[in-house]
Amino acid sequence: MFAFVIHTAIIFTIFLMLAVGCNFIVGYGGLFTIGHGAFYALGAYAAGLLSTKLGLGFWPGLAAGGVVAAAVGGALAISLSTVDEDYFSLATFGFGIVTFTVLMNWFSVTNGALGIAGIPAPTLFGLEIESGVPYLALVVVAAVLCYGGVWLLIRSPFGRVLQAMRDEAAGVAACGRNVVWLKSVCFAIGSFIAGVAGVLYAHYATYIDPTSFTVEVSILSLSMAVVGGLGTLAGPLLGAVVVVLAPELLRFVDLPAGSAGLIRQGIYGGLLVLTLAIRPAGLLGRRTRGG
Amino acid sequence: MSSQILINGIVIGALYVMLALGFSMIYTSTGFFNLSHGAILLTGAYVSYAAGALWGLGFAASVVIGALAATAIHVVAAAGIYLPMRSRGASMWIMAIGSLGFAIVSQAAIGIVFGTRTLNIREGYVAPVLQVGEVRVSYIDVAIIAISVVLVTATHQFLQRTKTGIGIRAAMADRDMAQAVGIRVRSLELLVFAIGAFLAGTAGGLYALKGAIIYSMGGPALLKSIVVSILGIPFGLVGVFGGGIFLGVVENVVVANWSAGWVDGVSLLVLIVFVWLTAVRARVRKYR
Amino acid sequence: MSLLLEITELAAGYGGVSVLDGISIRVDSAETVGVIGANGAGKTTLLKSIMGFATVQGGGVAMDGADLHTRPVHDRARLGIAYVPEGARVFGELTVAENLEVGGYTTKSRAVLQERLDVVLDLFPVLRQRLSYKGNTLSGGQRQMLAVGRGLMAGASLLLLDEPSLGLAPLIVDELFAKLASIRELGTTILFVEQNAAKAFELADRVYVMSAGRIHLEGTPAQLMEDPSVAALYLGGESVD
Ligand SMILES: Nc1ncnc2c1ncn2[C@@H]1O[C@H](COP(=O)(O)OP(=O)(O)O)[C@@H](O)[C@H]1O
Ligand SMILES: [Mg+2]
């Protein structure tokens, strides 16, 4: 029971990081991505491969996972800069699926459906950070750092220009700002956070396979950001509580054994519909953004 | 490429065309990507299964009942959820996520009622096969192609020739101006939703007849709808037909030469490359 | 003459933004009324409030004695108001014939529609040659004529025109206003807004002068032309920007 609570808290915190990164891209940058999960996958696989094939440690892997995700994210945003908004979203969605397909089928590198096993637990000052409470502390610190980083960023001059661009891209471009660059930096930062979350997941689970990185992760990231309220600071936290934690609590309710998973899934969908139908701008949002 | 692969691709493509025409009509008229489109197909397939395998109705009746049930459920969702969301200021992607939520709910409901294992509507029935030279086509495949051509052409004629159809196209082009000439745009949007859902629901019933009903087939079906619509929209009806058949054939070639695992990745890659190369502008009104 | 459209103390804008500030205008049947004003005066907003596209914040609009306040846009069209918006806004993807057919969307009788179509095509012979062309292939002047023709197809009792001269070459403007004069002779009630005061004075029975969301003067063209402030402000050139 205690172990289960800790496990849920770790997964929750990792998802919270996905929501924070996604909210940064969608809510503050106005770039409606439906492929956030791909960068989570990139981080996880980078860490998994570097640690098992090259024997790289956790900390360099953490940096590498974040940087790989950021670089690919930035490049994707640049290459899609001429594409109309709606199609941008679709292309990110497609990118998520292509990534999944590659993980599944590029056997020689990713090991396909068999996945990567034996990813070591991280060490700090020579001590192994065990799964359980110490690992929870690690992910919480990481999440707090990301949350704090985003908080500082949106108050910085960069963040203010970014939000101005979200609301009025033409105006910001007219002021001589390079909109393509702004967008790609924003996308890279959000992807970096997703990559870091992926690394943390890989070293926690010690085994990864493509099924943890389906489109559903992208959708879940977006759902958390949207339900909480895009472009609000507390939105991702609230969104993660509603979307991830609430259905999880149903484990404590007596459901018919065979369809418990389905019922939880139905409730997740129902919460999504209900929140957006009642508050299209999300629980904390005042107005709708994106798209 | 053997002609057998080609014909298999065309049969699947004919189903994609029905999916995509409905999806793109809903997109151009209501302005959002209906991410429950795969769930419509799923509903059509499962209700057809209930009608055919559980209540013992004939194939044709089963498909029609499946399509009608799928239409009814999803029109209610549009009238009760998506369009009101838009009136409250939801942007197009927020509406899309709302529709995704509904898809998740309906898929879960189907799983609870029917279970999640693969079902077969025509247990023990082997469709007669037409042999033309080396190529074998079952009568069900022939029916699928015929029904797709008839329904898609009928939809097209309705849009082109009837007064209501012209009104729908006017509303697609300029929603406000269409209201200003007295068109009840909202009712027409629901009509378009009904047509789109009927096409997708029928595709679901036909898919069920063709082979197995797989619980998880809604997601891939949604992907095909999106890919084919995006490929096709700039080129009108011919584009949707061409895109559907193209994708069906490409997939069958991929499966025949490499492995089934690459199919979704390849089709989405086709999409990204297409979007990227042409940077197509959505010819659709944006709702704030 | 009977009162057709009555606007009383209308305050309107977009959401919380207020543009019109207590406007009162009346239009009798068979009358042609113009509203002139500089760019940004609120002319478009006035017509949008009549049609139901702007937020009414106070006052009211009544058509034939019926308060329009709660009516959706399509109902107002069905009550007999035809709207020719700024920049014509024809349905670009529809052919000219389809644009005209959509104009008569609320009319059931084929015979009546055919009659109206004949009137429109006699009035604008260029459209007859282009019936099968898409709306977005037309020139600016032809679009404006198509938009007016689309408005006439409704057989409406009130025609609203938003700056018909906008963006057209002077010769085309003359041609268009000649057509509007013939429409007026057919007995159609017209309320139009214009920056081009000279043209407005030619066409209208009565003119309102608007600036910054208020009506400042009202009178017949003859009366207004006497007014020194009008002459200075609006008749100096073709238009005032
Ligand atoms: N959609 C809108 N939202 C907010 N303000 C608007 C909108 N459209 C116009 N305005 C403002 O209303 C004022 C009057 O505009 P308009 O009615 O278009 O004037 P006119 O047609 O006389 O040029 C302008 O100051 C303009 O900026
Ligand atoms: Mg104007």
Task: Give an account of the 3D structure.
The complex is a heterotrimer of chains A (291), B (288) and C (241). Chain A is mainly alpha-helical. Helix content of chain A is 71%, strand content 1%. Chain A has helices at residues 2-28, 36-53, 58-79, 85-105, 107-110, 133-155, 157-167, 169-174, 179-205, 215-228, 235-249, 260-278; strands at 123-124, 127-128. Chain A has a two-stranded antiparallel sheet. In chain A, β1 (123-124) and β2 (127-128) form a beta hairpin. Chain A is globular and about 55 Å long. In chain B, the strands form two sheets. Chain B has a two-stranded antiparallel ribbon with strand order 1-4. In chain B, strands 2-3 form a two-stranded antiparallel ribbon. Chain B has a single domain (3-286), classed as ABC transporter involved in vitamin B12 uptake, BtuC, CATH 1.10.3470. Chain C has 241 residues and is α/β, with parallel strands linked by helices. Chain C has a domain at 1-80 and 193-241: 3-Layer(aba) Sandwich (Rossmann fold). Helices cover 38% and strands 28% of the residues of chain C. Chain C contains ten helices and ten strands. In chain C, the strands form two sheets. In chain C, strands 6-7-8-3-9-10 form a six-stranded mixed sheet, with helices on both faces. In chain C, a hairpin with a 2-residue loop joins β4 (55-63) and β5. In chain C, α4 (110-123) packs antiparallel against α6 (140-153). The longest helix of chain C has 16 residues, at 170-185. Chains in contact: A-B, B-C. Chains A and B meet through α4, α10 and α12 of A and α3, α4, α9 and α11 of B. The complex binds adenosine-5'-diphosphate and magnesium ion.
